[in-house]
């Protein structure tokens, strides 16, 4: 979420929690209106370690993928999704149909790069997507590309499509349930939930779509969009979050409740009652799927940024603390000696924190989960700092930087690309001839659930790269880099 165009919540009268260093518990701030105060800039050594965020390699890879994926694909009907690390297509983007939920991230990466220094052919097909009511993934599809077109270029058609997409998403809202339907169907081996009459599926990922509703409400005055977003966030507090503190789980320096996440909850659309919980992409019903936890951190951080409501702050903080705790508790085999001789890998999450490790030499991870969580923590840092909660702000800023720093040390693809200028033309070459990998990061896992009909893992992922670029942009906007 763009930090300089979100709703102005810095002047909202709230009492957000902070850590009491005396008793490690939540206390209440009496401050009502705090001028914007950002966490301190990063030390030069950390900025140096994060320099890969701004390396021309990223721009070169995005430009080359833009050209490659346009081949036999114009008008555009398919978008880059993942990059295999093994097999006949090693290093090359595999595309998915334009209707797939990841379509917005590649054009979003293009526009995120433009924020640093425009790509309209990639965003053009997204306008038609704004009318879709068959999916809840509207924020993922629409916002990465069309929001920058509005904010950077003043493209009113882009803003119109954003509002239309929010209205389309709102058609999936059920006021009895108090939530937006995520999926119409969950069909896996041994799991078949297909009724729109007796079932209502909500997933933790759906927290990320609320930002679209808040943004559209802010720009259009359609307050029912924001009201639905608030209700949805509150419903998922009850249906998709597990209170780990009730089990005695604690993390040093934090006195609030720690939360893990259920991936999927099935509710009764007639009564709103919870019917069952399960997973679709995690290891099991009661495991903590790393990317689902990360979606929750960022989704609740965004919701707090828009509303200033304490319960959403506590949820995001509790999810973040549990995420960090599980990283700290991961077995020693997650670490290795990196390219610079340092130990790295502890903060590149296992794909599911509770899944058995099948290969101790190369534990299966999801680098995208760590990058998404880092973005969520950076949003928390800014919002907390704006409200005078500097201790927690620095805590989450430092954690976010640590996650990205470790991802760059462990998962940054060694196969880099370079830009060459010849005769006024820019072209992209492999830094090492014959060594090509289209994604910026490796070690992501889209879906390793053993019941799913389409499993693919250990690869580059378009949204992992998108949120990596966005993290660099957030640091710039916060004047931390």
Automatic annotation (TrEMBL):
GO biological process terms on file:
polysaccharide catabolic process
Q: Which portions of the chain have biased composition (kind: Low complexity)?
A: 27-37
What's a Gene Ontology MF term here? chondroitin hydrolase activity
> Keywords of this protein's UniProt record, alphabetized?
Hydrolase
What are the boundaries of the region Disordered? 1-37
Entry keyword annotation includes Transcription regulation: no
Name the family. Belongs to the glycosyl hydrolase 88 family.
**What name is this protein filed under?**
Glucuronyl hydrolase
Protein species of origin: Coniochaeta pulveracea
